[in-house]
Specification:
single chain, alpha+beta, Muramoyl-pentapeptide Carboxypeptidase, domain 2, two-stranded antiparallel ribbon, about 15% strand
């Protein structure tokens, strides 16, 4: 059976490219046509792919793993690859957080820590499984996210593609419980360790 990814993954990768490449201020806005030829995120091809992935998200149509990996490798050639991956991670976290019902989000933020953490962990576990193809577990005061098949893993030098998952984990925990401690990439398949794993210190502002 071929490996697939949720269409939200390649969508946020391209949306992050577009966001980073979008001109700032009126001065650059005067040269948008010229910038389109120089910045990938402003190209008609990227815009068309974003529309295609948006349609796939609406249909719930999963896409080939290699398609997402190809986009990640394209990003990996950029000098700002890590920044793009981090922005994509934040985007995915915000979009998946928005899918949690408003009453559930409010409940998690209002309940005492002892009651809210299991609820938050359940949501993060479901997000990790569906959108990241990963598994999440709690070990004492830490959360461990394991991802075996990562489309961004070998995308860029110095494991820059792994910043995508670190950013997702940090942002979703910030949104759910109001804070997260250090997020550390403790295992990496690129280093021959079999799988990628991130450890986050569970912290709440309450």
């Amino acid at each position: 059976m071929s490996v697939t990814v949720d269409p939200l993954v390649p969508l946020v990768l391209l949306e992050a490219v577009r966001s980073v490449d979008m001109p700032d201020g009126d001065l650059e806005a005067e040269f948008v046509d010229e910038l389109r030829t120089k910045r990938l995120g402003l190209s008609d091809t990227v815009l068309a792919q974003i529309r295609r992935y948006n349609d796939a998200v609406k249909r719930g149509q999963r896409l080939p793993f290699d398609e997402a990996a190809g986009i990640a490798k394209l990003i990996g050639r950029r000098p700002d690859a890590e920044a793009v991956f981090r922005e994509a991670g934040r985007m995915l976290a915000r979009q998946t957080y928005a899918r949690i019902s408003a009453p559930s989000r409010s409940l998690i933020r209002s309940l005492p820590t002892m009651l809210s953490r299991p609820l938050a962990l359940g949501h993060v576990r479901r997000i990790g499984h569906r959108f990241l193809g990963g598994s999440l577990r709690r070990v004492g005061a830490t959360i461990l996210l394991e991802v075996r098949d990562s489309p961004t893993r070998d995308a860029a030098p110095r494991q820059a593609g792994c910043a995508f998952y670190e950013s997702i984990l940090r942002e979703i925990m910030q949104l759910l419980v109001g804070g997260v401690g250090a997020v550390e990439h403790v295992r990496c398949a690129t280093r021959g360790e079999g799988t990628c794993e991130w450890r986050a210190e569970w912290r709440s502002i309450r």
